[in-house]
Amino acid sequence: MGSFTKSPTVLTDLQVDGTTMVVDESNNRLGIGTATPQAALDVAGNIFPSADATHNLGSSSKRWDNIFTNDLHLANDRGDWTIIEEEEYLSIRNNKNGKMYKFVMEEIPED
Question: Which residue segment(s) compose the domain that 28 sits in?
């Protein structure tokens, strides 16, 4: 693996090994695993913390606006649950005992 004795200055797009890492300088985007990043950070693959339950995604003062996901898996030392979006309702599964529960929701009429 090569090394630099000084910090390199890149004044245009930078591509490392095809799609391993791409810096799209003109659009201020970084792609990992993609040659055409569509957002400020575009990752084609999984992202892992360095250790289990050690890092946050956002903070109390820097929150994500929307999170787009399929089923939502929640687990800690006390519980292990999955929230599942069904066609007409939401359900939640206790992954420790396999029991399923249905969220009971009441429609709020528009004013």
Answer: 14-43
Q: What is the DSSP annotation of 34-85?
A: -SS--SSEEESS----SSTT---SS-SSS--S----SSEEEE-SS-EEEEEE
Residue with tokens 């292990």, as numbered in its chain:
80
Give this prediction's pTM.
Answer: 0.64
Between the two ends of the chain, the Cα-to-Cα distance in Å is 65
Residue 37 CB burial class (10 angstroms; 0-12, 13-18, ≥19): buried
The token duo for 111 is 């004013």
Domain count, the chain: 2
The pLDDT averaged over each successive group of 10 residues in the chain (111 residues) is: 66 75 90 92 92 89 90 93 93 97 91 80
